[in-house]
Amino acid sequence: MRLVLLLLAACAPDPPGSQRSPPTTPPVSSPPTGTTDPCASDVPDPGPPTAPRRIRTLTVTVATGPGEFDGTDDDTIQLCLAEKVCFPLNGATGEQLASRATGVWMISDLDLDPADLDRVELRVTNGANQWKPIRMDLRFDGLPAYCAALDVAIGTEAGESPVWSDPAGLHLDCDSAWERQLTHGSLLGAVTASSALVWARTDATRPVSARIWPSTDPTAARVAAWAYPAAEDDFTAELEVGCLEPSTAYTYEVLVDGVPNAPGTFTTAPRPGDKGTWRLSFGSCSKEESQGIFASILGGNPDLFAFVGDNHYANSADLDTLRWYYRWSLERFERAALVRSVPTLATWDDHDFVGNDTLGTAPGKEQALRAFREYWANPGAGLADVDGVFFAHTRGDVDLIFLDDRYWRGVEGSLLGLAQHAWLTEQLVASNATFKLVIDGSQWSFTGAGDSWDDFPTERDALFQTLADEQIGGVLLLSGDIHRSELRLLDAPGYPLPEITSSPLAQTSLTSCAALGGELLACADGGNFWIDLDVDTTAADPTITATIRDQSGIAVGSATWARSALE
Fold first, then answer.
1. What distance separates the 2 farthest-apart alpha carbons in the chain?
2. Residue 218's pLDDT is what?
3. What pLDDT does residue 13 have?
4. The domain over range 58-165 is classified in CATH as 1.50.40.10
5. Confidence band for 512, pLDDT divided at 50, 70 and 90
6. Which of 32, 265, 439, 556 has its CB surrounded by the most CB atoms within 10 Å?
7. Among the listed residues 74, 106, 101, the one whose alpha carbon sits nearest the alpha carbon of residue 87
């Protein structure tokens, strides 16, 4: 399980590659004597977890040199800590052994006595493809046990070493194989009128604290939460921050081992039920090395961003691989800058689940769910007795219902699974929101392409009939996946349902616009796109306007729906 601290305020660091900043507020003081208001004082450090006497989890982190041929994809390298205590460093897990990469391997369910570990040794067991690691660290149950700079070419050809051993054995000559202790983040997750979730990843189990203040009053800064990220969670931590005021700008920073990282800013949501104007931006399909589109999205000042599937392309059920792709995604500078200051929510689709077109019967889906939960700061993931990534979130008088279209797909002859379908129905029937956004990675319209609601027409028709029977108004359908962006109206027994499809963010545009599965209002293909939804519930007849934007932010299609047309 990921670490969730139900504490007090917010926090956050800078995107990968940026420099640590000096403290932006005065040093934190001790809580005043006699203070009883938990929102007015610093949260004390709870102290580190108790270290086990025997090693249960080993984390290996290795940075590869920047040369063109410093990396390798050979699955032939081992780390040995004793003659018969060796572990493979699998090059097939993402691009962990590539040039300029930092690979991480977690080996769990161990039972090792530290006294038995007499070496730090790299071995080539087969093959001859050179690999040049430049830094390596080891964590025993999250705690630093080894760190050193390396100057060696691992391989079996002339001038290379098939076996390399550190003559000093286990020791600490450096702080981390990473360039900084805060390796990834911060990521701002679910933000309500009174709270915010902030996510961060460190290089080891270290004290992580969150400091927050109203942006207009730096003197009110306070430490709001603490975390000690655990090895079994890939050193990710999620901090829940409360005691916030609605519709208020805050500044926050994350401190690791007491060192502050560059601050981020965010604005809390309006009170539940309040009318207002705000912008949701969303998109799907992010694969390319360059993801500059996120700078354009940030420039549009969205109040909320939603990833709607294919958020990376691991196409794997291997836990180390899935984690590598999540870290890789957060190393895209523009993307990291967006999620640091814009509340971000996510669901998944096939490529960030287990693989292309995969169903809920796919082996390894539990590992995909574990990694997803570690790397997103959603307000929930499934139900207590139903696995999945689905959840609901409210902003003002708009409900957002995020679906999981993979974990149960095809298991019970259903796309959602029977329990999730029942949960969705309950959410819609109970909602009093002006608009209900139902968000799914798969397209709702019948396009004939498969891997969509095409494959489950009975379930889709039953859902649409429920909307009519229960007189549920204000529903709009959001989707991704198809590598083009569309605005459609779908035939339904109650009222024509808008479907708003946003794809791709950073991926090849593989499909062309086609007027299938409903009335096509606007379409964009042949490039990268996102969609802005501008919500205005202050008018007598509230509206939502959807605008398709290209990578530079230019509008290439739009449509507006009034609430009166959705009932």
1. 78
2. 94
3. 38
4. no
5. confident
6. 439
7. 106
Residue type, 204: A
Q: Is the pTM higher than 0.90?
A: yes
For position 147, what pLDDT does the model report? 98
Give me the amino acid identity at 197.
L
Q: What is the pLDDT of residue 28?
A: 38
Residue 447 confidence (pLDDT): 66
How far from the centroid of its chain's Cα atoms is residue 9's Cα? 20
Across 16-25, 290-299, 416-425, least confident range: 16-25
19 vs 537 pLDDT, higher one: 537
Q: How many of the other CB atoms lie within 10 Å of CB of 380?
A: 14
Residue 495: HSE in the Cβ half-sphere, 13 Å Cα cutoff: 16
Inform me whether the pLDDT recorded for 534 exceeds 50.
yes
Instruction: Give CA–CA dist 557/532, Å, rounded.
Output: 11
Among residues 468, 523, 466, the alpha carbon closest in space to that of 500 is found at 523
Q: Where are the domains of the chain?
A: 4-16+181-267, 58-165, 277-386+416-443+458-565
Which CATH number is associated with domain 277-386+416-443+458-565? Answer: 3.60.21.70
Indicate if the pLDDT at residue 399 is higher than 50: yes
Residue with tokens 């969509």: 452
For residue 487, how far is the Cα from the chain centroid? Answer: 26
Report how far residue 377's alpha carbon sits from residue 200's, in angstroms, rounded to the nearest whole number. Answer: 10
Note every long-range contact of 445-450, with CB atoms under 8 Å and residues 24 or more positions apart, other chains counting.
445/488, 445/490, 445/499, 445/501, 445/516, 445/517, 445/518, 446/516, 446/517, 446/518, 447/482, 447/514, 447/516, 447/517, 448/516, 448/517, 449/482, 449/511, 450/357
Distance between alpha carbon 499 and the CA centroid of its chain, in Å?
A: 25
Integer Cα distance of 196 and 378 in angstroms: 10
- DSSP conformation letters of 415-441: SS-HHHHHHHHHHHHH---SEEEEE-S
End-to-end CA distance of the chain: 41
The topology under which CATH files domain 4-16+181-267 is Immunoglobulin-like (2.60.40)
Residues 203-251 pLDDT 10s: 999 999 989 999 999 999 999 999 999 999 999 999 988 899 999 999 9
Q: What is the pLDDT of residue 472?
A: 98
φ and ψ at 296, to 5 degrees? -65, -40
Residue 173 in 3-state DSSP?
A: coil
pLDDT tens by residue, 272-293: 999 999 999 999 999 999 999 9
Residue 13, amino acid: P
The amino acid sitting at 170 is L
* Region 535-540 average pLDDT: 97
Q: How far apart are CA 88 and CA 76, in angstroms?
A: 8
Q: Which residue, 211, 216, 97, is CA-closest to 154?
A: 97
